[in-house]
Amino acid sequence: MAIQAKTRNEVAFARLRGDILSGRLIPGQKLAFAELCESYGVSVGVIREALSRLVEQGLVHSAPQQGFFVTTISGPDLVYLTQARCEIESLVLAHAIAEGNVEWESLVLASHHRLVNAPLVSPEDPERLSEEWVERHSDFHQTLLLGCENPRLRGIAGQLRDSAELYRRWSVPFDHEGDRDIAGEHALIVEAVLKRDTALATQRLVEHISKTTSLLLESGVVEGAEKR
């Protein structure tokens, strides 16, 4: 019975998170318990647990006496989040390069290979990231930092990446414009990591993180995304 309950919780959490990241539930939207329970076919307790986990990831926020809402995205928050990610993730990557072993290098190569072979966008909607790519992209960035021996630093970096997922979803249409090569950016990071070139690897990671921010700020979509 415990296994079944855990499975229901995990499925509900994954579906709710996916609906937020896919844009089915838009930034600023109120998340009513009754509607969510009916939509996902689970109890209030299961939904409450899922929402609590999403609050921890920065995808949902709660307001006293008002309930839960999909996190609203904004220009200032994006700038602060990007600054924090660049500072923390470059620091953790530097530790990973200094402390990671050959097994870590193998994991980096394997996670990159899986990412390269995942479709970037959903076949049903080219303006939505595919669930497979989202999962493998998260795994790739997590694996990059896995060589760092400090779990606290890795945990902070992971929380910041989770918070950035909502912004990444809204950047998809602009990633296809111009000459951005996301796969190429990932490949260049891996190349520098395997060379143990800390300065170059952290520089490329920062550039990769910052590119999405630049695209969103230049497009003006960040402030108006709630109405899209």
From TrEMBL:
<dbReference type="Pfam" id="PF07729">
    <property type="entry name" value="FCD"/>
</dbReference>
<feature type="domain" description="HTH gntR-type">
    <location>
        <begin position="6"/>
        <end position="73"/>
    </location>
</feature>
<dbReference type="InterPro" id="IPR011711">
    <property type="entry name" value="GntR_C"/>
</dbReference>
<protein>
    <recommendedName>
        <fullName>HTH gntR-type domain-containing protein</fullName>
    </recommendedName>
</protein>
<dbReference type="InterPro" id="IPR008920">
    <property type="entry name" value="TF_FadR/GntR_C"/>
</dbReference>
<dbReference type="GO" id="GO:0003677">
    <property type="term" value="F:DNA binding"/>
</dbReference>
<dbReference type="GO" id="GO:0003700">
    <property type="term" value="F:DNA-binding transcription factor activity"/>
</dbReference>
<keyword id="KW-0238">DNA-binding</keyword>
<dbReference type="InterPro" id="IPR036388">
    <property type="entry name" value="WH-like_DNA-bd_sf"/>
</dbReference>
<keyword id="KW-0805">Transcription regulation</keyword>
<dbReference type="InterPro" id="IPR036390">
    <property type="entry name" value="WH_DNA-bd_sf"/>
</dbReference>
<dbReference type="Pfam" id="PF00392">
    <property type="entry name" value="GntR"/>
</dbReference>
<keyword id="KW-0804">Transcription</keyword>
<dbReference type="InterPro" id="IPR000524">
    <property type="entry name" value="Tscrpt_reg_HTH_GntR"/>
</dbReference>
